[in-house]
Amino acid sequence: MRTCRAAAAGKLITVLVTLALLAACGSSGPSPAAWAASVCSALTPWRAEISKLTSSTNEQMTAQTTPAQAKENLVRLFGGAEQASEDARRKVEQAGVPEVEHGEEISAGFRASLASMRDAYGQARTTIDGLSTGEAGVFYDGVRAAVEVLKQEYDASGLDTSQLNSEELKRAFDEVPECR
Fold it and tell me: pLDDT by residue (tens digit) across 76-94?
């Protein structure tokens, strides 16, 4: 009887150790190349959308529209940029934490930059939405001020992969096709 219990305990310990090892293997983050590919796949459509929205915003600033039309269009455009930034932030979050030294900090930095950009677009949208369209000059001055604040906040949030403190990730961002 004692031999059966010892054998069963031994098998249980073997199973638990195997499960612990499998769990540890499963909890590691993606490789630098896989993470860089996921991040670039998230950022490529975001950059394209931001570029398109920036062009549309510039067109709105010079178009011959009423302040009410410009306001509606700009609120929609900045709302789109806000949503695109959140979508990219969420995809970077879903990419996980790269399996590199300081991977959590690096991932958090990317997410924080995108969250800052999202918030900057949201603030510009809210500011413009709150402007009165009664006087065109006052309205467009308010829009220019909102866009200037947006530029400052956008520049401050900088998403710069050259500042990565991981040689493995720098190499991955240079090499994976999704980042070219």
Answer: 999 999 999 999 999 999 9
Domain boundaries, the chain: 1-29, 31-179
99: left (phi over 0), alpha (psi -120 to 50) or beta: beta
| Residue 19 pLDDT > 60 | no
Question: Measured between alpha carbons, how far is 146 from 138 in angstroms, rounded to an integer?
Answer: 12
Give the C-alpha separation, 172 to 56, whole Å. Answer: 33
Name 130's Cβ contacts closer than 8 Å, sequence gap at least 6. Answer: none
pTM: 0.78
Asked whether the CA dihedral 120, 121, 123, 124 is positive or negative, the reply is positive
Answer yes or no: is pLDDT of 99 > 90. Answer: yes
The confidence band for 16, taking pLDDT boundaries of 50, 70 and 90, is very low
